Amino acid sequence: MTATGQDTRDAIVVGGGLVGAAIAYGLQRQGLTTVMLDEGDVAHRASRGNFGLVWVQSKGLGAPHYQHWTHASAGAWPELAADLLATTGIGVGLHQPGGLHFCFSDDEMAQRDALMGQLRREAGNAGYEYRMIPAAELRDMVPGLGPQVVGASWTPYDGHASPLHLLRALHAAFQDLGGHYRPNAKVTAIKAAPRDFTVAIGAETVRAPRLVLASGLGNADLAPLVGLSAPLRPERGQILVTERTRQVLGLPTHVVRQTEEGSLLLGDSKEDMGFDTLTQTPAMMRAIAHKAVRTFPWIAELNIVRAWAALRVMSPDGKPIYDESERYPGATIANCHSGVTLAGAHASLLAPMIAAGALAPEMSPFSARRFDVQKAA
Ligand SMILES: Cc1cc2nc3c(=O)[nH]c(=O)nc-3n(C[C@H](O)[C@H](O)[C@H](O)COP(=O)(O)OP(=O)(O)OC[C@H]3O[C@@H](n4cnc5c(N)ncnc54)[C@H](O)[C@@H]3O)c2cc1C
Predict the structure, then answer these.
(1) Within 10 Å of residue 307's Cβ, how many Cβ atoms?
(2) Which residues contact 112 (CB under 8 A, 6 or more apart)?
(3) Residues in CB range of 356: below 8 A, 6 or more apart
(4) Residue 273: pLDDT band by 50, 70, 90 thresholds?
(5) What is the position in ligand 1's atom list of the atom closest to the CA of 310?
(6) Ligand 1 neighbourhood includes 253 CB (under 6 angstroms)
């Protein structure tokens, strides 16, 4: 910090959720002095209200670049978890035993098989291992499966982690490595020039040649300030949590997962509700509980102890947006609706690209310019 109140760094990251924190940690680990400016734990809280899956299956249908990115992220996760533990002593509870997506009719099984087959074809040489597992075999893998379950798809790539421990560990590791975290720092204006960005926070300013906008839904307002666009919308999701019970579920599923502490998380709702996060709806909570009990009838014996709603950060096609400004080189935006899954890629693959000064060519399909093409068509 200079006497004039100007803080000069190698990089500014706006947003302290899972996306901003993973990138800021990755940049600081690359040796770049980085400041993370964060409005804080205000209403939208996707990073604090999510399900915690590190999930590969069903991601990137018709978009092999997204499938590869997700796969690469799941592959980068073990090293990320180990590094965070070594730096901070915080375990993020990563388990990657593979995951199950249940089907309740033969038709559903056939459709799911077709979808997984397409993903395999689109994976090309990278490969995509999956199996459709019939109910009789599933009963040996997970206990107390309901009679209505006909089978499930399985890939070895899926897993889960504690999203709250992950967020805490990313923040702690970032700061342990010398990164500067500024809470209560809502960014509303940016002075942009090529490889020269200045952001005012109260009476102080922060200046850097790299600027990363990773403020979740906030990017919709901030991206235009650096000549980019982030056409994002909120999508509400609700989650129910049961009381703790003995460890019964050895692997995560898309509707139920068991935490290291023993609670079961039940969820999977997707609701287009604008910016209304606070309301949990009895009808949706009933639907979530019903689906969980239909899958595992024994869940009906457990008490629900907590429930919440939070907003996903959704682009028009549901895929991430990574873009860099042509007008103001050095400015990058990053958004996705799978910030837990993609934390490995954000810290270990995206941050080095940003540090090096440009996104790799294979990232171009993630540009928000794809929506201009869709609009024109
Ligand atoms: C119900 C639910 C279940 C989910 N389940 C999973 C899952 O199982 N697996 C998975 O991978 N993902 C899951 N997700 C998605 C995941 O939670 C999000 O992708 C991720 O949290 C997005 O992180 P983010 O940092 O982009 O956004 P946010 O968490 O919204 O964080 C954005 C941050 O930026 C700050 N900010 C905003 N505007 C400004 C500004 N102008 N100046 C400074 N700071 C600002 C905010 O205060 C906030 O701290 C789920 C999401 C929900 C809602």
Answers:
(1) 16
(2) 101, 103, 132, 153
(3) none
(4) low
(5) 53
(6) no
Contact 167, 121 (CB under 8 A): no
Q: What is the CA radius of gyration of the chain?
A: 21
Tokens, residue 187? 């960014």
Neighbour count for residue 272 (Cβ, 10 Å): 9
Helix and strand totals (H; E) in the chain: 10, 19
Ligand 1 nearest atom to the CA of residue 40, by list position: 47
CATH code linked to domain 6-53+164-231+318-376 = 3.50.50.60
Q: Can you tell me the distance from the alpha carbon of 80 to that of 348, in angstroms, rounded to the nearest whole number?
A: 8
pLDDT at 270 over 90: no
Return d(Cα 334, Cα 320) in angstroms, integer: 7
Could you tell me if the CB of 70 is within 6 A of ligand 1? no
- Provide, rounded to the nearest whole percent, the portion of the chain with pLDDT above 70: 93
Q: Say yes or no: CB of residue 344 within 6 Å of ligand 1.
A: no
What does the pLDDT look like over 146-204, one tens digit per residue?
A: 999 999 999 999 999 999 999 999 999 999 999 999 999 999 999 999 999 999 998 88
Atom of ligand 1 lying closest to residue 44 CA = 30
Q: Where in the chain is the domain with CATH 3.50.50.60?
A: 6-53+164-231+318-376
Burial classification of residue 347, based on how many CB atoms lie within 10 Å of its CB (0-12 exposed, 13-18 middle, 19 or more buried): buried
Residue 225 CA to residue 75 CA, distance in Å, equals 34
Query: Hey, what CATH class is 233-314 in?
Result: alpha beta
- Residue 374 host element (H or E): helix 369-376
Q: Is residue 166 within 8 Å of residue 47, measured between CB atoms? A: no
Separation CA 215–CA 21 (nearest Å): 10
For 229-252, how does the pLDDT look when each residue is reduced to its tens digit (9 = 90+)? 999 999 888 999 999 999 999 999
pLDDT one-digit tens code per residue, 318-328? 999 999 999 99
